[in-house]
What does this fold into?
Amino acid sequence: MTCCVIIPFFNEKNFIREVVEISASYCESIFAVDDGSTDGGADTIPKIPGVEIFTLEKNQGKGAALRLGFIQAIKRGFDTVITLDGDKQHNPEFIPKFLEELKINPVVIGKRKFDTSIMPFHRILSNSISSFLISLKTGIQVLDSQSGYRGFQCSLLKQILPDENGYIAETEMLIKASKYCNSFAWVDIPTIYGEEKSKMKNIETTLKFVKQIVKPLGDL
It folds into this structure.
């Protein structure tokens, strides 16, 4: 089973090198997708075998960066992809657990512990609301709808590529996947928040989540 790790990033100069290096120790193919960064972060990525950088000339959003990486992975004929963020909120050491689950599950998602001592309350609230609504809409129990640490079998990925450019793309993909899957697999991952600042605009993004969720399944 061949796998590619896709790491979208935007102005993550302080973190992206380490994330790529550690990821490369668990997977031979890494696609780092630069979503129009202006901080020179791409220049810090080590030039090691298997690591490729794809660049969007201007910032388009996480969904656009993911879509670029997905399309490249599908074209190259990979069996599976794993996505994780470039800001160190996702520990690459869990990649083997995702790979194990992907042997039998088309969708695997990292599940964080919603702990107010670690995760900001507004993020817990937004995630809880969107997870509940997606579960209600799809009939599939969704435990962490906003986790970007995910794995997909490419046979399914071809059917659920996102149209949205922003963070809402990840919600869109879950809803699309529900048309082909009876359940999602979950991997417990640490809840990590450090000096990095979230680029998600909370109220605006939550409203977009709700708008995406209430769309009829046939429109997705």
Residues 3-219 form a domain with the Spore Coat Polysaccharide Biosynthesis Protein SpsA; Chain A fold (CATH 3.90.550.10). The chain has one domain: 3-219.
